[in-house]
Amino acid sequence: MARVEDLAERFGRHIATPWQRTVSGAQRVVMLVYDKELERTLRARKLAFETAARQAGHDWHELDISAAFAAWMASDDYREEYFASPEDLQLKLQAEFPEYVAERIRAMLSGAEVTENSIVALFGVGALFGFARLSHILKLVEADIRGRLVVFFPGHLERSNYRLLDARDGWNYLAVPITLHGEGGAP
To answer: How many domains is the chain built from?
Structure first.
């Protein structure tokens, strides 16, 4: 459990530094990278991250997208047909699901209570695996980030290359990484 507390401490140090206001949306993303085995422990201890944010003078807003696919699928009129023939879902999944998730994130980012001093914490990104690429979804919401978007990322980081759940070819992203092995700069 000490690893989660160590990560929360690193996050607290990073988030307490003054924020530059002129950075791009991609640089307003903070990737909190941790071993996928720590997902449940981290969720149980997420108050440590909220406390660190509030102690640094930032307000905290959470969004969990773990059930996004289920909600998206349940709202589709043809869901029974897709369950009978899942291969037919692939085109619709690629075309519509990333925008659906992005819209949920965008709604939180643009809420009246979210300001340039706010942190929006995004949980549940591991549930996107196999359905959508997080890199694509983050590109869709970059322009809407006013404060900081903190992505709780169960995976791995090697030289700016993020790998969700350690299983997929990663992508290079401009976000500020915070890991148990180091932390990024402070845009």
So the answer is: 1
